[in-house]
Structures are given as structure tokens and as C-alpha cells.
């Protein structure tokens, strides 16, 4: 996109202060105002940040989370609060929700009907009552998913709801006794390709009849993962591409779902997705997807968690959107500090600003335990716990919407800063996210090209922050013609403004 050259350079001074120390695991409605502490900047580094309005990159489709584990989510007495914390205006403002094509639905192959919830049971049933308690575990999960997806759409008008498939129904697999992909267990292509495609299409049609029209659907989840014990299905690139073109796309079209997008291939490691998709027939794939976990070589060495150095895909994507459909710290060690927060910030920054992804979806929205696989956790006393990863997610999701494009932001190497910038061309609104992953405070001088900035709002998260995204006083340009901001170590800061 073109933009006018700046007639002058505008400036601002960001006064950085830390909020009084408070427990980060209290719920937002339990947190009051906080006193401000002056930040003492010993060992301060200096650097320069450049923002160029005229250099535009990918459009952002949004940010989201998976609506599960489904049954604990549905049964949680805090479920309404959790919905607000994830998709509501006082929370993360997520605009995406990932569901699951469960493999346990009743399926009438003759009529192509998939039954997505038990008959004669309201989704608003009392989960402590006899009716609900009389359901099977599978029926509870079916009912719970309908509730989560439907309430998100009704309450928050979540525009992008999509679903991924972990495994086909077991009777369609080569080894029907094996729920996982171990021993390369997957769909029996010779007998069940048509049936599975109709099952996925029937699932999508049933949800449409419930008022939930999926934006997209994925026939696989981590198709290369033959090591794990959970529900999974092995696919080769050739077979997955053939299935999408020859079976799934036609089945969706036959059910009147011509506009539903197909997402693929959702490999566990970002680099593996690059290799997998590069050799796959993608002619009927609308959205290319991978997960943000460490690479296979790291897993072999015993490493887990968020990929801290994802690589740019080397094949031509054909201008198709690229999504991260799952990422979290699955190392098994709970960390609710900025150490964990910076890991997520690094992963998000590099995937958005270096790998040019259009959307980022976290793994779990909530868990009934404390675990970094989830944005919201639950303490032993039933209260909700918010690790710093929750706050970090909000630094992107709250002020970068699906009408924003990334534009050029650069910073001197060696400063410890990572900077990305996003703009809404129609309104001139922009958002800048600055991550200081280092151990020193950094004083940054700004250089704007192609635009001027007036008053700016900002919020910041450190290990000492209380509450979530407490805004500082509005910032305006100073009289010196220079602009600078001080970023404390191990912090993330979001700046928002409007092009003048």
C-alpha cells in the first residue's frame, strides 16, 4: 500500500512505571487499582526503533484459543467468567475459536446425518442434576462443545469458528482398536475415504443447523505424530492432499457448504509443516496451517514447549493465509511468571513478524488444573489463575483486529528488543508491540516514516504488574522533537495511536 511521506517527524516520551506487586492469579473482578512504583533503570541500554508506514506486509486474521478441554470447561462453575475472559471485551477480545471434530458422534451413513448432541437435553442443563449425570462421558463432551461454540457466537459474535479433526471414527481406521497414530495407524483409504469425508461434512452441517457456521474445517491434526498415545491419525502428504481434493471438498459441496474453507495440515512442528505442505497437493486447501511447538530434532533431545526460533517457510504459499492453529508451553512445568510470558511473546513475535502468519491460536482456553498448556488455569480452591501468558496474549489480541495489516518495524540488533507494528488503513489506527526479553532496561529512540503520531495510549506487563493491561496516562509529543521510551527488562508493552 502507498502512503504519503511524513512532512515532519513526531515524537513522544513514554514514562515507564511499574505497578505495585500483586498476585497475578486473582480474577480480574477481584483486582482493584494499583499504586505506581518508579522504575530504577540501572544498566540501561540505548537503541533506535524505526516505524515505516509505507512498507506493508500481511493482513492479520486474528487471535484465538481452543474451546477445551471440553467437559471441564462446560462443567466449570466459572465457565461464564471464562468465556468473558477469553472472548469478551473486558478480556482478551479473541475473534477466533477452535473446536474439534470429535470421533465419537453417532453417524448414519445412509442419510449422512451426524448427531452432535444427545436428544432432548438442553445445552443449558444443570450439570449437577440427574439428567446430565445420567449421560455418558461421550454425550457430555458432545453437549459441552455445542454449549461452548454456541455461547461464544451468541454472546460475543465470534466471527471465526473452525474445527480440527484428531482422528476419524475408529471403525474407519486401519487398526480400529488403536485411537492413536502409533504404528502409522490412520484412515483406511481403500474403504473409508468417502465415509470419513461425509462424516466431517455431516458434522459441519449439523452445527450449521444449530446456528454455528464454521469458517473452516481441518481433516487432520498433527498428521505426522506417531509417537503420542492420544487420539490421532497418521497421514502422508500425498494421501491428505488426495483426500481433500477427491473426497472432502466434494462432500462439503454436496451438503451446501461450498463457502467453508479447508485448513491443512496442522503439523506439530512449524518446520515439519513446511516440509509436509511443500510436497502436498494444496489446490483445494484454502488456509495453510502449522503448530508453534519445537521442532522434531528438539523433541528427540527431550525439549518441549514453544518454538523460540521458528523458520520462514521455504516454499511459495500462493498467497494463501497461513495460520498457527495451536501453540503452548507443553513442557509440563507450570510457570506463571514473565519467564513463561516472554517465551510466548517471542514465539508470537517471530511467527507474526518474521514468518508472516495471518492468525495465531493458542492451544487451550482453560484447564481445571494449573498448566501452561492453557491461558486460564484453576487453583485447588476453584479460583481462576492467570499466568503471564494470558496477559501477553492480550498485548496482541486486544488491539490488533482482523482489519489490521502488519507494517515495517525495525530495531537495532543486540538491544534485546523485539518490535512489531500493525495498522488499520481505513482509520489510521495503529498498534506497536515492544518486547524486552533481556535483563537490562532499554531506552529506545523512535523514528517515524510516512506518518505522524499524536496522543498515544500504552499498557505494559512485567512480573510486578497488578491486574491486566492497566493503561498509563496518555502520551503526547514533547517539545524537543525527539521521542524516546524506556522499556524495563523482561517486559512487553503495547502502544496504540492514530495516524495524524
Structure in words:
Strand 18 (417-424) and strand 19 (429-436) form a beta hairpin. Helix content is 24%, strand content 26%. By secondary structure, the chain is of the alpha/beta class. The protein has two domains: 13-58 and 406-498, Golgi alpha-mannosidase II (Immunoglobulin-like, Sandwich); 61-327, Alpha-Beta Barrel (TIM Barrel). Strands 1-22-20-4-17-18-19-23-21 form a nine-stranded mixed beta sheet, covered by helices on one side. Strands 5-6-9-10-11-12-13-14 form an eight-stranded parallel barrel, surrounded by seven helices. It contains ten helices and 23 strands. Helix 5 (189-209) crosses helix 6 (237-254). It is globular.
Characteristic terms for this protein:
alpha/beta; Immunoglobulin-like; TIM Barrel; eight-stranded parallel beta barrel
Compose a concise summary of this entry.
With 500 residues, the protein is an alpha/beta fold. It contains 10 helices and 23 strands.
Topology:
Blueprint: E1 13-14, E2 17-19, E3 36-38, E4 45-59, E5 62-66, H1 70-75, H2 79-87, E6 96-101, E7 107-108, E8 113-114, H3 130-133, H4 137-156, E9 160-165, H5 189-209, E10 216-218, H6 237-254, E11 261-269, H7 270-278, E12 287-293, H8 296-300, E13 322-326, H9 338-354, E14 359-366, E15 374-378, E16 384-385, H10 388-397, E17 405-411, E18 417-424, E19 429-436, E20 442-449, E21 457-461, E22 484-487, E23 491-498
Parallel strand pairs: 1-22, 4-20, 5-6, 5-14, 6-9, 9-10, 10-11, 11-12, 12-13, 13-14, 14-15
Antiparallel strand pairs: 2-3, 4-17, 7-8, 15-16, 17-18, 18-19, 19-23, 20-22, 21-23
Helix pairs in contact: 5-6, 9-10
